[in-house]
Design a protein that fits this description.
The structure is a single chain. With 655 residues, the protein is mostly beta strands. Among the domains are: 1-242, Immunoglobulin-like, CATH 2.60.40; 521-655, Immunoglobulin-like, CATH 2.60.40. It contains eight helices and 39 strands. Strands 20, 21, 22, 28, 29, 32, 34, 35, 37, 38 and 39 form an eleven-stranded mixed β-sheet that branches. Strands 4, 5, 7, 8, 11 and 12 form a six-stranded mixed β-sheet that branches. A hairpin with a 4-residue loop joins strand 30 (524-530) and strand 31. Helix 2 packs across helix 3. The longest helix is centred in the last third of the chain and has 16 residues, at 449-464. The chain is globular and about 85 Å long.
């Protein structure tokens, strides 16, 4: 870390102020070249953000302008102080679940390079039938006194990306928009604390005072830390070095939303900046019931190398109650499918299927008929949040939020296929597919330790009965602050693309399907089972010829508290260890434990916070609590299977 007075050279990422586009759901055509009008508008629009009269002291604000349903196919031009400003990432997106329906213009207004004082924003909307609509907002840029140019490097001094959390040394400093709840009715980013540094440089304006800045790239890196007493403009350099090297694994977030989802309001510029800053190497964009190609936006935000990310186009598809599906809610489940071609190639499967199994069949048949250019006929199907969603750490989980296991009934204490679990194994006519034939399941969604404990029991019950699905963990991020991109992350043992190469999406999907995945919000455990002759890792089978040993390595960055390491055999915690590291040092512990079971077994390791014991979800303090508020350190491997009885096949242990 280095803090120096700002002199001469301005080191910051220059961005366009806002967006001008002529687009419908992200399809670009030509915008107006100026903001002059030769006639009065046919109708006036209200600008929700930045609202008229707002005093803005923040680095940026979202641009949100509602448009009536009759304005389908609108073209949009945005002007500040009479001059058009261009940003190809502004979209006109379909609004859903809001009275009157319609569309939203969704973009961003970057303020770091905007002079202080009064400004006028104009938004011009031209409809396909020739009508002209206009919205205006007069706002004041009341920026803070001092400019802080942030420079982030790796251990070799090369520019890199990171999220920089601004604190006063004790608590985060709010950088959120005063129109936070007008821009996003959920108010998730109204108290934003972070600056997203892309490719090494960004700028923020701050008032005089004491600050402690924390640069976080991902859960496996050291924090870059800077303390400064700000009384002048500054250049602050923060180093983010690797703490847990795992070069044969790709970090992946398999469930991320953009502003094209009806319940997400984060502008594309900051959606993709958040992923780049998180050090995510594979980002799967899964908007609700639509397919978005992330590559063009990544190129705008991250430059020619896309900020080091490989984007994957996916979809989060609703499964809605109809026919044999008798859930108590309209939407009973969410299923991710990736990578997939968009509906412009072929329509997505129906959202109201006669059965869960038919949805799986429909997505697989669609992939065979219309292969993805990077994955061919391979497609990964992931069941999301099967017991509900924890929307805010300070609130209770919402067990009624698209929880298929609650809606259709799953008792992990009862054999699959019996009683209330009968629906899970009923074969689909003509294919034999059952409802459990998905590839992966979100064991941890966002920050919820309580729901992790519940879904963990479901997963263990399925494994004990011989139904192997890969366990994953995803941010399910719709926003920037409450749901942090890259928390949790999946470390997938898959081929790493070379510079300028595309992701081998088929091999990546195969690795996830095979279970070569570690899930982490900080603790990174690794597991190998060995009998002295052979060895096997997650997703693999060891045909044991003698005593079996679990070889475990547990690592974590110094800022990640790890209280416990656990060995799990057939769903039971059989051994624990309280690991420790020297103060300020990365955790790196190796341990060997014998594996004993009355018959064949599956084995995994998990680490981090102690298992959830009910009550209020714990609040983690220290730097971890500052960079990931509401989250808890957690890590687990997928299971390794071991044939202990020597018959050459693996027999599930049963409930």
């Amino acid at each position: 870390m280095a803090v120096t007075p700002r002199v001469g050279l301005l080191l910051f990422l220059t961005m366009p102020l806002v967006a001008g586009c002529h687009c419908r759901d992200g399809s670009d055509v030509t915008e107006r070249s100026d903001c002059s009008l030769d006639r009065e508008p046919d109708r006036w629009l209200t600008v929700d953000s930045p609202s008229d009269g707002a005093a803005l002291r923040v680095p940026w604000v979202p641009l949100v302008v509602p448009v009536d349903s009759s304005e389908d196919g609108a073209a949009v031009t945005v002007c500040v102080d009479g001059a058009p400003v261009a940003d190809p990432l502004t979209i006109v997106r379909r609004r859903s679940g809001v009275a009157g329906g319609g569309w939203d213009v969704l973009g961003s207004l970057e303020l770091t390079a905007l002079a202080p004082g009064a400004h006028t924003l104009e938004v011009l909307v031209e409809t396909v039938d020739g009508r002209l609509l206009k919205g205006e907002s007069a706002f004041t840029h009341d920026r803070a006194a001092h400019r802080v140019d942030l420079v982030v490097t790796d251990a070799e001094g090369a520019p890199t990306s990171a999220r920089v959390v601004i604190t006063d040394g004790v608590a985060p400093v709010s950088l959120g928009s005063p129109d936070g709840e007008a821009a996003d009715p959920y108010g998730r980013d109204a108290d934003l604390h972070s600056v997203f540094v892309v490719n090494g440089a960004a700028t923020v304006w701050l008032d005089p005072g004491h600050y402690r800045l924390l640069a976080v790239r991902g859960v496996r890196e050291h924090l870059g830390v800077a303390e400064l007493d700000l009384d002048d403009d500054r250049v602050v350099t923060l180093e983010v070095a690797s703490a847990v090297a795992l070069d044969d694994h790709l970090s992946a977030d398999l469930h991320v939303h953009t502003g094209r989802s009806y319940d997400s309001f984060v502008p594309d510029r900051y959606r993709y900046a958040s992923l780049i800053a998180a050090g995510v190497e594979v980002a799967v964009i899964t908007d609700h019931n639509r397919v978005v190609d992330p590559d063009p936006a990544l190129a705008v935000v991250g430059g020619p190398d896309r900020g080091g990310i490989r984007g994957v186009a996916g979809v989060e598809a609703d499964i809605r109650a109809q026919g044999e599906l008798s859930g108590g809610h309209w939407d009973i489940a969410h299923l991710n499918a990736f990578p997939v071609v968009g509906p412009e190639v072929v329509a997505l499967p129906t959202l109201q299927p006669p059965s869960v199994a038919s949805t799986l069949d429909d997505f697989r048949a669609r992939q065979v008929a219309f292969p993805h250019p990077d994955a061919g006929e391979r497609v990964l199907l992931q069941l999301n949040h099967p017991r509900g969603i924890h929307f805010r750490p300070e609130d209770d989980p919402v067990y009624g939020a698209w929880p298929i296991f609650d809606e259709l009934g799953f008792d992990p204490r009862t054999p699959v296929g019996e009683g209330g679990n009968a629906w899970m194994t009923e074969p689909e006519p003509g294919t034999g597919t059952i409802a459990l034939d998905f590839d992966a399941m979100e064991i941890v969604n966002r920050f919820s330790l309580e729901l992790y404990d519940t879904v963990r029991a479901d997963w263990f019950a399925l494994l004990n009965q011989g139904f192997f699905v890969t366990g994953t963990g995803n941010a399910d991020s719709h926003a920037l602050q409450v749901e942090v991109a890259g928390f949790p992350t999946n470390l997938v043992q898959a081929p790493r693309p070379g510079e300028g190469e595309r992701l081998d999406a088929g091999a990546f999907v195969e690795a996830v399907q095979d279970g070569r995945v570690i899930v982490t919000t900080g603790a990174v455990p690794q597991l190998t089972l060995s009998d002295g002759v052979g060895a096997a890792g997650p997703g693999e089978l060891l045909l044991a010829e003698g005593a079996v040993t679990a070889e475990i390595r547990l690592r974590a960055a110094p800022w990640v508290p790890v209280d416990e390491l656990r060995l799990v055999v057939n769903g039971d915690v059989v051994r624990t260890l309280a690991p420790s590291a020297a103060e300020g040092e990365a955790l790196d512990v190796a341990v060997s434990w014998p594996v004993e079971a009355p018959g064949d077994a599956w084995v995994l390791v998990e680490a981090g916070w102690p298992l959830y014991a009910g009550g209020v979800q714990p609040r983690v303090g220290g730097d971890y609590g500052l960079v990931a508020p509401g989250y808890v350190p957690l890590g687990f491997t997928n299971p390794v299977f071991v044939d202990l009885d020597g018959d050459g096949v693996w027999t599930p242990p049963g409930l």
